[in-house]
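Here comes a specimen:
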Amino acid sequence: MSEISNYLEKVAFNHNINVIWSGKLSSETPPGCSLHYRNIVMNINWHRPAEVSFQLAHEISHILNGDGTDICFYHATFTGKQSVEYKANTGAIKLLVPFYCQNVPKESINVYDFMESYEVPSYLDNVVKEEVHNYYISNRY
């Protein structure tokens, strides 16, 4: 398992969220979560492997946000800034930025490399810029 997956699984564990990795799903089956049971099911066979870290962070965010429905399935397209999915995408970025930026000088960070690394949808570029900025402000780099 990759370092980012380990990091996100620790975040999940620290919030009493169980992550289940399944290799029995179609490559087109998105991950999902149950807020009631605090479980996330991730698809090892996803057709875009680089996106899996963003998906996991997204599903963790659904649970941390206490979204209004019990079962949520990954959906990264733009559905409005007030939507549950947009908020989960924003939360995913907030979870990923500290891992990505740790021990890296501010001058070396490239927001678009971050977005490409985790296949973050392009409509979230301003969110990524803001969160990277906030990371360096709060950590006094």
Observations:
- The first strand starts at residue 18 and ends at 22.
- Residues 6 and 12 are 10 Å apart (CA to CA).
